[in-house]
Amino acid sequence: MAEENKQQEQPVVASEYNLDAKWDACLDLGVRRFAYFSLIGGFAGLLLFRSPVTRWASTAFGAGTGIGSAYTECAQKFGGYPGKSTASISETPITKDGDD
């Protein structure tokens, strides 16, 4: 009987670690993408723009893009984001009711 209780507890512990691993991976992904995309946006701002305001805007755009892409990927890992939707197309043609 004690062996049955241990076997029942193991999947709960495994899923808890799996959830913690997902959170760790998402946090790591978010920080990395925020930093990398901010640097890319800042570098692009230095190359393309003269005004400090537009350079900061380029950096902010890069940071937002990085956070957005990290959020999308993390949402897919947790199963909350459906991803690309597949539209079902009917093979039967649409007909008009009326005289043409």
TrEMBL record:
GO cellular component: MICOS complex
Pfam families: DUF543 (PF04418)
Coiled coil: none
InterPro entries noted in UniProt: Mic10
Keyword Membrane: yes
Keywords from the UniProt entry: Membrane, Mitochondrion, Mitochondrion inner membrane, Transmembrane, Transmembrane helix
Membrane topology: Single-pass membrane protein
Family of this protein: Belongs to the MICOS complex subunit Mic10 family.
Full protein name: MICOS complex subunit Mic10
